[in-house]
Amino acid sequence: MRNAAEGGASSLDLHRQATSAGVEEHDLVVVSVGTNDAAPWRRVPVAAFSRALSSFLLSAPAHRWVYLAPPGVDEACLQGSTDRTNAVLDEYRDAALSACDDVGAHVVRTERIIAPLGAAAFADDGLHLSGRAYGVVLPAVADALRSAMHRG
Known about the structure:
- The chain has a single domain, classed as Rossmann fold.
- Strands 1-2-3 form a 3-stranded parallel beta sheet, sandwiched between helices.
- The protein is globular, with a radius of gyration of 15 Å.
- By secondary structure, the chain is mainly α.
- Strand 1, helix 2 and strand 2 form a beta-alpha-beta unit.
- The protein has helices at residues 14-21, 46-59, 86-103, 110-114, 131-151; strands at residues 28-31, 64-68, 106-108.
- It contains 5 helices and 3 strands.
- The chain starts with 13 loop residues before the first helix and ends with a helix.
């Protein structure tokens, strides 16, 4: 097992991260992009995000994927109208779900899993998940990994 996640990374970094991690055909890869792509200082256009993610999923050596969908944000805690919104993140999530369908990726719908927690799903910054949220998301990721492993 190897964690090649990088804080602040976006869909435009996926190929480099996979190369750096030495991803091979037999690997099972968890991909979590979208939230940073939507960041106001980055704002990767949704079409470019979709192309980058699709290109990665179709050309990387691995053939088994789990996609961890963006959880959304607690808009009440963010820095005003220039920060990410759930409406914007929905666009990135929808684009990613389409790309994931094309390769048969298992998808963890983070936003649905944490919904019962409400604002408690997020740290005080409104962006990062809280410990309680990870407590419900990680078992879902483990289930998706088990399903993807058995798919073969």
